[in-house]
Amino acid sequence: MKDKKLIAIFVSLFLIQIGVYTLLHLWNIKHEPIDNSDFKKDYPNYRTLKKIDLSYKDLKKIPSELSVMNSLEAINLGGNYLTEINLHRISPSVQKLYLAGNQINNLQFYSDIFFEESNLKVLDLSNNLLKNYPYALHKFPYLEMLNLSENNISKFDNDIAVPLESLKSFHISTNFFSISDINMGLIFPNLKQSN
Question: Do residues 62 and 9 share a domain?
């Protein structure tokens, strides 16, 4: 009787493994490391892509090709080894940018023109190493969802922050300050969801 149960368990686990492999294959998700020299080879039609999943590719920097992908609307760069993000390496056409699970401790912005041209609506910077609240993100005119949970942010200064009127969803849990420290009505007047 025990042998039949063990065989049934092994068969179930095998079928689950095949199912996961099949899903990954169907979604065409590759989790091999790439570097910038392989980017054009791995994504030959990169200029016309609408979405790209570069999660878990062992990337240490954002591929420069992302800045010229003018059709691109969504990028997943989660689970890499990015430490600094230069958002000017991202095409202004991008509406959703997922950067969760990296080692980001710094965001770089060189010009206000980038913010004015940007169509960014969703920005996920959760589970990184940010220590300071990135007030410059308030310059994104269309930003609707901002996730900064699970970082090392220690405070929010209501006197520095300018209102971010487009924001509807804000996640800041598991940091070193409370959402109650934020003057929500003043800073995020149209917020519908927060934690």
Answer: no
